[in-house]
Design a protein that fits this description.
mainly beta, 5-stranded mixed β-sheet, 16 strands
């Protein structure tokens, strides 16, 4: 698999590098969060949300919308699924990671997505990016056997369990959690409630 640099022009349709905010304090707190063999995503972590940049992100980057700051840590090298939100997501790399990305516009009318369209990008340690709402993404992939840590910033309550049943639109079958539409791969192990929408190979960075 070709691994592109995050500075390549090919990344511009997926997101942008955030250069105007200092995330040093946040990354220092991230370094103290657990790192296990399994991928663990925690949407909201009080220690991460207590840093001064929280207010800056909420006020300026998200236009005063309530936000949450959490992490996605562990060891991973597979695609397994792709998701999208109705909002941008900020990723801040505590270690070098590889992001597997696609475009929502390439989802077919029957809500299928061919994994051959996925592009891979190296997100270097210490780099922060905004992923646009139309960018398909999922858990980052590790570049070493030691695993990785990544800060995840999203509007508050994103990825929490749904409060109500859904089924009024054809897209509702993808709605997996609050503000989270998911297309799983049949080999991705996302559970019985996940919509199997990925066709082709379950990509691996190894």
């Amino acid at each position: 698999m070709k691994i592109n640099q995050i500075t390549d022009n090919s990344f511009k349709k997926y997101g942008k590098i955030i250069k105007e905010i200092d995330f040093t304090e946040l990354l220092n707190v991230l370094a103290e969060t657990p790192l296990t063999d399994e991928i663990v995503y925690i949407p909201s972590v009080p220690e991460l949300e207590s840093v001064s940049v929280y207010q800056e992100l909420q006020k300026n980057f998200y236009g005063e919308l309530p936000i949450q700051i959490g992490y996605c840590n562990g060891k991973n090298h597979m695609l397994n699924a792709l998701e999208y939100h109705r909002s941008s997501e900020i990723n801040i790399a505590g270690d070098d990671v590889i992001l597997l990305l696609g475009s929502q516009q390439d989802i077919s009318d029957d809500y299928k997505y061919d994994t051959s369209l996925v592009e891979a990008f190296l997100l270097p340690k210490g780099t922060a990016i905004e992923l646009y709402s139309t960018t398909l993404h999922f858990a980052a992939c590790s570049t070493s056997d030691a695993g990785h840590r990544v800060v995840i910033v999203l509007p508050k309550d994103t990825n929490l369990p749904l409060d109500h049943p859904h089924g009024n639109t054809s897209e509702d079958k993808l709605l997996f959690a609050k503000n989270k539409w998911l297309l799983a791969h049949p080999e991705g192990g996302r559970g019985d409630n996940a919509y199997i929408g990925l066709t082709g190979e379950n990509l691996s960075v190894k």
